[in-house]
Amino acid sequence: MSKPLLYLLAGNGSAADWWDDALPHFEHYRVQALELPGFGSNPQPPCADLSGYAQALLEMTEPGQAIVAVGVSALIVLHALQRRPGHFARSVLLSPVGAFLWQRRLPALMSPLVLRKAIHWSLSHKPQWFAHKFSRQPWSEAQYRRMGAGYARCRAFVPSWDQLRADTALTLLEWVTDPVELVWGDQDRMLGIAQAAAWSAILARADLRISLQPGWGHYPWIDAPQAFAAWVESGAPGFVAHTKGGRLRLAELAGQPVPQALTLDHEHDPRLPPLLAEHPQVTWAVRSSSYGEDQADAANAGLSTTYLRVPGHEVAERVRQLRTAGVEEVVVQRFVTPLLSGIAFVRHLAVEVEWVEGHLESLADGQATPERAVLSRLGPAWESGAFEPRHGLDAAALWAFLQGVLKVFHYVPGDVEWAWDGQQLWLLQYRPISEHGWRRHLTAANIAEILPPQPSRFVEYAQRRAAASIPAVMARWDSRVLQDNEPFTAVFGGASYINNDLFLARLSDWGVSAANYAGEVGGATPALPWRPWRVLRSLPLFWRMQRIARRHLATLEPGLQRFDAELAQLKAEGTDGQRLADWFSRFYVFVVQGNLCIATALASSGGFLLGRPATAYDDLSNSPHRLPWETDPGTPRPDLVDLPLQPLPRWPRPVALAHRMGLIGLRGYYLQVREWYRDNLMRIFFRVHHAMPPAEREAWFAPHPDVRSRAGSFWQDGSEGLEQAVGFMIYPGHVRGILGQDILFEETLDPGRHAQYQQAKAVVARMGGRLSHGSTLLRELRKPSAVLPQLDAGWVGREVVYRDGALSLAVGEHPA
């Protein structure tokens, strides 16, 4: 039986012989060191972007084998897995590059071409100058010469810094589901273990394990090749990232204040007695840390018991009880006795927080009525309530703490449990948000114009997968969009709407009134006044924005051709519906990012001074690809005919020069580009429709079950005009039934009644927290529900109507 194959792929500047020291020490793998196009002795030219490198890696490797990759090459492996799930049986990624790129100094330092070339020359000819960066231990002269020769042969080094951009590095990586092992050395001076928390958020759905290796630097296969090979072959998996215990450990490694804790899989773990003996006077919290809890798509809250204030001599027994109940891991954490505690849904633009005096157990179990507030960067329209100073804690300190937690998890919105003991704030838990109605402003404008109220499952699948990746293109001129981490579309009532907050946040930072935006998208927006000083400060940004957006137009034609060729290859290979839908998700990101750049160019075009050239709409006499709801590939189409892509219109030299110089008067020409782009998109959509295997069309092209029922603009949490003064909506909907029978009426929310909640048409309660386990469960069930403290108990037994957080007597019923 032949040994499995292990590919070795070093980072930027690498050559195959960089691995020579480690190759003799592998016993259980056949080992092959790789060189991507433009690296080492690979004669192919460097690829144009990360997508090109990912495709090249897929083509030069056999499916089902293992790979170890380093730095930027680790990022390329992740893009390859996003394109072709399951291609690698095992992926071990050392110090991956890609997190916080817009905040790191090195990418900014390498922006000037002359500096890049100077660094490349220095690495090639004087590698000893960088010895302290390579390793904390000295290498032999031969090793330094080998390192320098690799850089000298690397034609990809200089252009790679243009390709490694924050706006493209992480596209769609949150949908990678493969097993991935991330490894950092504690002596790595280039990329440290503090980034692990960020990667756990980036790879939200991967089967992710994380290792911290003592003594390792950035090149452990050179520093200690035998130990490195032995570790790889041992298969030591590291700790599971996507659990309660895993995230707490990641937060601690990133410098967050986490009470001392251990994650155990057995009550006899030898680490437990020393921990308990070290703190004999304290009590402990013993909590489940199951693999099925706190996942990106399902919180599964409240399914296991939490034991609080457990004395040290009872901890092992509590661990055993949870393990016997089927919990895979158990977190034993020093119990914090708080003066104030709460739960917060945190994003960069806003924090929605609930708190109670003392411990948050009364909030999580719905036994106390919490105080609530929504704090926001955007202004009063996004806020409600207030967090008044108490016990020495004020709103500014709480905001800073919660934003600090958010940052280490790469600004991915999270559900944070916190406690204040009178001296400091403690992080008790962070988990991704699987379902929540933010106080976020949404609109049906634009999306209602191009997609039916019930788009196909196919386009809704792509739209939701692409939503978080699309806005990154705007980071080319304003990197703050990456911190805001707002999706392009958001879900209300099961349907997708445009997320106004994405755009209004930019206007707020720029000091621009929202009135023009409201006119552009239709409907109304919350008040955002002009701030002249911010506008003046943003003038260089506006210039950069229009310059970059105009430059992007030249990439549209080759991008369309590349995706059209990929589609043709998929069809030739006999694609199935899933592969086609995943390809369409990548294409959808490209499509909408292109539209955003075209819209930005139009916004700075300054009228029709240079003319109004013909557009694609001037000749649609033979256009089977243009039809109602054409933007949905699931819309029925005529029989397949040959519809080649049309070339980008060529402009007269004066117009092209005005375009390059950033002059005004080009609105007509940018409209021409927009309509050319759309017409070519519809040609590809036409082919996508016919590429779907006939046996799968009914499933993929069926209408999505949830209808986009809202017109105009509205708040995602449904509170405007609907929320009771001291109540709130948990999940929207419109149902009719008998209160107390079809629509459950509860005194307090109880996650243990999940079976009853599932069967009910809706659930209303007198008491419960927005962020309690009961509320979380109802959101997971997508069950119409609300907390209505003032609900008249006399309505029990009568027919009522629940609509988006409000309850009323049905027509024909009269108040008693």
Provide an overview of this structure.
It contains 29 helices and 28 strands. The protein is α+β, with helices and mostly antiparallel strands. It folds into 4 domains: 5-240, Alpha/Beta hydrolase fold, catalytic domain (Rossmann fold), CATH 3.40.50; 244-432, D-amino Acid Aminotransferase, Chain A, domain 1; 445-498 and 538-700, no CATH class; 724-809, Glucose Oxidase, domain 1. The chain has a 7-stranded mixed beta sheet with strand order 2-1-3-4-5-6-7, covered by helices on one side. It has a 6-stranded antiparallel beta sheet with strand order 15-14-13-12-16-17. Helix 2 links the parallel strand 3 and strand 4 (88-94). 47% of the residues are buried.
Number of domain units: 4
Q: Helical percent range? A: 25-40%
Taking the sheet with the most strands, its summary is: 7 strands, mixed
Mean pLDDT: 89
> What CATH architecture label of the largest domain applies?
3-Layer(aba) Sandwich
> In the CATH scheme, what's the topology name of the largest domain?
Rossmann fold
Rg over alpha carbons: 28 Å
Q: Determine the oligomeric state from the structure.
A: single chain
CATH class of the largest domain: Alpha Beta
- Which strand order does the major sheet show? 2-1-3-4-5-6-7
Percent strand? 15-25%
The number of helical runs is: 29
Helix-strand category: alpha+beta
Compute the number of strand runs.
Answer: 28
CATH superfamily label of the largest domain: Alpha/Beta hydrolase fold, catalytic domain
